[in-house]
Amino acid sequence: MTSMKPRTHQVGLFGALALAAVGLAGCETYSAGSPRQYAVLEAADTTGATNTNINSLSEVISRNPNDAGAYVTRGAAYARSGQYGDAIGDFSKAIQIDPNSSSAYNNRGLAYRQTGRNDAALQDFSKAIANDPNFAAAYIGRANLERAQGDLGGALNDLNVAIRLAPESAEAYHARGLVRQKQGHDADAIGDFAAAIDRNPFVAAPYAARGQSLIATNQYDKAIEDYNAALNVNSKDANSWAYRGVAYEKTNRKKEARESYTQASSLDPNNSVAKQGMSRMSGGIF
């Protein structure tokens, strides 16, 4: 498995003024002959500390009402607390003050995605890139949207640019791995997920995503290792428990498979991978 030692010069996805990083993970429906389905998993920070920070930032804005950066910073705090409407308002105000702010456009694009306004998000990511063609985060944001919309070629092109601009970005490699995985290029996807893990070994999603590609290439023991690593970071991820069950099932370790499926079902009773796995095991089909 890839070393757990983090790199010292890691490039942040969105920079100091950016929206909270979006967690991405592949989500595959497991059944023979069925198409793969992938979803974007995005979570907000709803801690009281964020709300306290918003109050402090509001005081800064009251003293500096024409500071575009202050609105971007407070908008990011709103987004982290799940207040996307307020976040969009702050990013829009920042753009009004500074129409050349790539950070404001990029962050508003991310907030638009959270509220399902994908066309507006795509326009904002493209505007951020037009303002600053070297802004890697905007390429990543646009690529994630393109992948979700099925434009895998466009997503791959954007992520190749992002990796050239920010070669230490774990998020860029992870996102490109998801595109390659969806294209069915699992060997290439495994390489990208490994690069993401090498750059940031303390996030669960790349381990879980690589585990799916390892299952797809019949590397079940390695997949189990990756799901163990993912669960060590986030033990509440039902999908990781479920896919670990698949890997155990494929190696005929019935007891471990059943335990993993059971844990997945306890976390998410509607988890289709766990339900299908338990059904197969109950019917004696392996």
UniProtKB/TrEMBL annotation:
Key word Cytoplasm present: no
Positions with biased composition (Polar residues): 260-274
Alphabetical UniProt keywords: Repeat, Signal, TPR repeat
SUPFAM superfamilies membership: TPR-like
InterPro entries hit by this protein: TPR-like_helical_dom_sf (IPR011990), TPR_rpt (IPR019734), Ycf3 (IPR050498)
Region called Disordered, residue ranges: 252-286
TPR repeat copies, ranges: 68-101, 102-135, 204-237, 238-271
Xref: PROSITE patterns: PROKAR_LIPOPROTEIN, TPR, TPR_REGION
Pfam families: TPR_11
Protein name: Tetratricopeptide (TPR) repeat protein
Organism from which the protein derives: Methylobacterium brachythecii
